Amino acid sequence: MNLSNLKPASGSIKTKKRIGRGQGSGRGGTSTRGHKGAGSRSGNSTKIGFEGGQMPLQRRVPKFGFKNINRVEYVGVNLDVLQAIVEKFSLTTVDFDTLKEHGLVSKNDLIKILGRGEFTAKVEVKAHAFSASAQKAIEAAGGSIVKL
Question: Could you tell me which residue ranges the Large ribosomal subunit protein uL15/eL18 domain spans (predicted)?
Fold first, then answer.
């Protein structure tokens, strides 16, 4: 041991500055709150998004259009995708569970069958909605549709 490696015992030096404990502490007086104003007083809290009186970003950004809160969002599944699944797994019915099992939809999704591609399989298709072209193609192939 020599003078170059002397250090205080562990735990003897406090690292946290104690605020508001007199001028000698270096954090006395206003206790880091500054002079006057709402921020210096107790009970002060600003609202989320408050920018010190400047017009908040939420109000500065232009808004346009219309958000329909009653909108029903469907997950589209095309006929060519259905055809591929039916051929690969030789299915007789295609329903929500089948599509979920093959990773095409999630548990809370609503399904709409769309008309892209060729469809030749004679199957029963169960979904929440069908496009007109998809419905024609499924029925033309000898299949049937069931709306959930």
Answer: 77-146
